[in-house]
Structures are given as structure tokens and as C-alpha cells.
Amino acid sequence: MKTETKLGDAPVLFVGDDVALDFINTAYGVGEEWHDHFVSDASVVDWLERAGVLRDEHGQAAHEGLLEMARELRDAARQLVEQRQAGKWGSPALVNRILGLGSHHIELQWENGGEPLVVARQANRHPAIVLLPVAEALARLLAEADFGRVRKCGSDERTLLFCDHTKSRSRRWCSMAMCGNRTKVAAYRARHSG
Fold first, then answer.
1. What b/e readout covers 46-69, taking b as 16+ CB neighbours within 10 angstroms?
2. What is the SS3 string spanning the chain?
């Protein structure tokens, strides 16, 4: 589990133990505690960098319009995960559209007087190309994960998802430090307040 870092008004939480779940978790909370870390095209790129999934060949892509596509993918991802948890079908159309942007080719460069070089080229320069690693992680999560281990945080104040990799399958909170301790303290106070 990565540590939390600041982006905007609240910490960016890397508690999902999966890139796709951490991407979904960029919007979390309830009521006045609602946080959305995607507030601009640059904030999406920043999150991708922090998550370690911004590929070098995609980092130079034009990012205009990325915010809208990232939010659309995040909403679709949350819905697909919820549908998978419920044993229902979900449409992979948006995920497949982003995965389709990933086609690439190699190119031979050979300048006069120089040595020949093989260079990888991205065929598509759409702003959403930077979301390709997230779409790939989401596809793998939906197709390969044990969904008995994908859970929502047990705190009433959180909407965060995580993958429980504990041997006992007993993880209940996105983070023991943030939610687990708070819940235990509240339960203790409730038991001893009377």
C-alpha cells in the first residue's frame, strides 16, 4: 500500500492495492466530506504520475479534454466493479474504446551519416491514451480478480474500494490508521458512555 499524498484539498489515497481501484478512489466520501481529485487535465496527469502508470511514450500526448474522459472512465469503472460484485453484466464499451487507443508500431529512423534506430511510435495521440494503463488494469481486475476479495471500506464515511490480500480475508477498512482505529474508538466510546 502506498502512502497518501496531497493533491488539492484532501489526501490522494492509494489504499486499493490495485491501480484500477485506486483510480476509482480518486472520488470518495459522503456529503460535505466528498472529494474529487480530478479537477483539471493536469490533476489527472499528476495522479497518473503519482500512481506510477504514466508511460514515457504517453507523457508527451496533448492532454486537453483529459479531465472529462478520466471522470467518465472512473464512473464506468466504479459501475463495472459494482456490477461484477453483484454478479451482473456490465458494458465494457468505454474500457474497450480506451484499450483500442493503445495500438502502436515501430519505426526505422536512419539519418544521413548516422546509425539506424528502431523507435516505438504511438499510433494515436488522443488525450485519453494516458489512461491506457488504468483501462488495462481495470480489464485485468474485472476478468482475473477474486471478487470475494474486492470490498468497500467498512466506514460509513468512506466509499473507497480495496482488494483484500490478507491471508485471513479479514480486511474491513481502506486503512486501519484512517478508518479502522476511528471506528474502534467510536465503538469503545459507545460501549463505555452509559
1. bbbebbebbeeebeebebeebbeb
2. CCCCEEECCEEECCCCCCHHHHHHCCEECCHHHCEECCCCHHHHHHHHHHHCCCCHHHHCCCCCCHHHHHHHHHHHHHHHHHHHHCCCCCCCHHHHHHHHCCCEEEEEECCCCCCCEEEEEECCCCHHHHHHHHHHHHHHHHHHCCCCCEEECCCCCCCCEEECCCCCCCCCCCCHHHHHHHHHHHHHHHHHCC
pTM for this predicted structure: 0.77
Q: Using one digit for the tens of pLDDT, what is the confidence trace for 154-191?
A: 666 667 888 888 787 767 666 655 664 555 555 555 66
Is residue 188 classed exposed, middle or buried when 0-12, 13-18 and 19+ CB atoms within 10 A define those classes?
exposed
Instruction: Say if residues 3 and 10 touch (Cβ distance below 8 Å).
Output: no
